[in-house]
Specification:
Distance between the termini: 65 Å
Order of helices and strands: HHHHHHHHHHHHHHHHHHHHHHH
Strand content: under 5%
Shape: globular
Number of strands: 0
Number of helices: 23
Structural class: mainly alpha
Oligomer: single chain
Largest sheet: none
Length: 476
């Protein structure tokens, strides 16, 4: 009894629910829940067990991921154990590893301090103002380059900035929670401002053209996406400020930190190494933006090239010891596991079953409400299927068909899908939030406190703005 008490109610609940789900995975037959194959039942069971264990933090996060990998095979969801490790060779997973070179270099060089000083000059009257400056800057950068890279850069800048709290570790931890949650959300929603913000946007544009015969241009997308992206950023800032108490500092303390930053941490003249690092960053940014039109320059390929350029002999921005010390393997393990889970859900028919289960045959309601309902369904499905490419590929055809059956343009429902498919921010399972989760400032259940109310508001925004915006640009 004493040993059980030490577990705590949260962990006991997690273990209990996981055991019940494991039993149900073998008791339930496909016919009972309308599935085609027993593998689908087992795959869904494994995913739900994993989500419960992650939410209750029963085990360390990587250990829960290892449990998912093991039982995915033991439960018979796949015939080949190697298939459960497929996510570890995914390009997204590899991006996480090589992107650490970028964030470590920015922390080591004065570049991050220069960006921070610039933002504090503009918004440095209060901590809430600085937080908003972070979020607006991140959202804007994410509109034109990889949101993963943007998040990695600003996580490094934020960790350095938290020194403003001095020796007050409690205040630093609390502020770190607020900033890291907001970095994850700003980088994610900023990606839907322009088509160049995410490869998913381009995938959505292509699916809209192939399924609905409508071509959405760069400017037309911005008219629809930019207002929602920036309003969502402000809303997230407001919710986070209310949900978590951000430790405030006096104007004098902020000014003193800013002055110290300028005189102690920012040299008047850039060194050759700093100029070289900036050159690498500019090259990477250009290639990341170009990747939207030239797929050869894969986002992960560019990150890998940038990583290697940090180690050129004779220049050597980083040493291998510095690099390996700064790598956090938790995001890599989380992302790899969730990619594998997403692949299993698609392969074993769970995603099709979910679509049939949640989507009605038609929507007999005004267009704004229809857009809101479909947007909400998309967000709910992303909790169970935390894979953006899987979501958009899976839902495009059913949503287009639903729109036609409801007597409306497919674009009215496919635009929200194209914009929101990348917003996997309920839990830190996707690449961007996992990068902000890795430093350890917030727990598994902190992100939903901001992201859930934000996503509800984003559904309302889609219903109110998408029909108007599409009318403005002449697409409906």
């Amino acid at each position: 009894m004493a040993a059980a008490a030490k577990l705590g109610p949260k962990k006991i609940a997690g273990l209990s629910i996981a055991i019940i789900l494991a039993i149900l995975s073998f008791v339930l037959t496909p016919e009972m829940i309308g599935m085609a194959d027993v593998k689908g039942v087992r795959t869904l069971g494994v995913l739900l067990i994993t989500i419960v264990l992650l939410m209750t933090e029963t085990f360390a996060i990587p250990i829960t991921c290892f449990i998912c990998i093991i039982i995915m095979y033991l439960f018979g969801a796949t015939d080949n154990f190697a298939a459960t490790l497929a996510g570890f060779t995914n390009t997204t997973s590899f991006f996480v590893i090589v992107s650490y070179a970028l964030s470590i270099a920015i922390t080591k060089m004065p570049i991050g301090n220069r960006i921070l000083f610039f933002m504090m000059n503009l918004f440095g009257r209060s901590m809430k103002g600085i937080l908003l400056a972070f979020m607006l800057t991140i959202a804007t950068l994410s509109a034109f380059m990889s949101n993963v890279a943007t998040a990695a850069i600003f996580v490094a800048i934020c960790i350095s900035f938290l020194d403003i709290y001095g020796d007050d570790e409690a205040a630093k931890k609390q502020a770190g929670k607020v900033f890291m949650v907001c970095i994850a959300i700003a980088a994610t929603v900023g990606g839907m401002i322009t088509p160049a913000g995410s490869s998913l946007n381009l995938l959505g544009i292509n699916l809209i053209e192939s399924l609905a015969g409508i071509r959405v241009t760069f400017v037309q997308w911005i008219v629809v996406g930019a207002p929602i992206g920036y309003v969502s950023t402000f809303v997230a800032w407001f919710i986070a400020s209310k949900m978590f108490k951000l430790p405030e500092l006096s104007k004098e303390t902020i000014t003193a930190y800013k002055d110290n930053l300028k005189h102690e941490s920012i040299p008047d003249k850039m060194s050759a190494k700093e100029l070289y690092t900036i050159g690498i960053l500019i090259l990477m940014f250009v290639l990341w933006i170009a990747s939207s039109w030239f797929p050869f320059w894969d986002v992960t390929l560019v990150a890998a090239i940038g990583c290697v350029l940090m180690f050129i002999p004779g220049i050597e921005i980083l040493t291998y010891k510095e690099y390996i010390k700064g790598v956090n393997w938790t995001p890599y393990i989380i992302i790899s596991t969730m990619i594998m889970a997403g692949q299993m859900l698609v392969a074993n028919g769970v995603t099709v079953w979910l679509c049939d289960f949640v989507f009605p045959s038609s929507l007999d309601m005004p267009i704004p409400f229809a857009v809101m309902v479909v947007s909400l369904i998309i967000f709910v499905l992303m909790v169970i299927i935390p894979s953006a490419p899987a979501i958009i590929n899976l839902l495009a055809s059913p949503i287009a068909a639903l729109a036609v059956a409801s007597g409306m343009s497919p674009l009215l429902l496919m635009m929200p899908l194209s914009m929101y498919a990348g917003c996997v921010i309920i839990f830190p399972f996707d690449t961007v939030p996992s990068i902000t989760y890795a430093p350890g400032y917030y727990g598994m259940t902190d992100l939903p406190k901001v992201s859930i109310p934000l996503e509800i508001i984003m559904c309302i925004l889609a219903g109110l703005w998408v029909p108007i915006a599409l009318g403005i640009v002449g697409l409906v």
